[in-house]
Design brief:
By secondary structure, the chain is mainly alpha-helical. It is built from five helices and two strands, in the order H-H-H-H-H-E-E.
């Protein structure tokens, strides 16, 4: 009788990401998740509650919660409002032939 190998998620993911459609969706979701995690981390670092930030940028707290949990897409305009509400000023930087958005 053949012994079953334990499930290896990394190998599974690697095999799935060979499909261009899956890789594209995965990359998009991973980027969005990292941006939302950064918003959450910056808010916590700034010691601002969701309620306080929502009041500063004039949206309901429930909307901010949906944004932070990835249950609502945001525009660049909303991203700018959120960052500004935490005292950050998003801007583009061009150095050494590279471009970045920083705040």
């Amino acid at each position: 009788m053949r012994k079953e190998q334990p499930f290896n998620f990394d190998s599974y993911l690697e095999s799935k990401l060979k499909n261009p459609r899956i890789k594209k969706a995965y990359d998009e979701e991973r980027f969005m998740t990292s941006v939302l995690a950064e918003i959450y981390a910056l808010r916590k670092e700034s010691k601002i509650t969701q309620k306080e930030l929502a009041e500063r940028i004039n949206i309901p707290q429930s909307e901010l919660s949906r944004i932070e949990t990835g249950n609502q897409n945001i525009s660049l305009q909303m991203f700018f409002r959120i960052m500004s509400g935490m005292g950050r000023k998003p801007h583009t930087v061009h150095t050494g032939g590279k471009r970045a958005i920083t705040f």
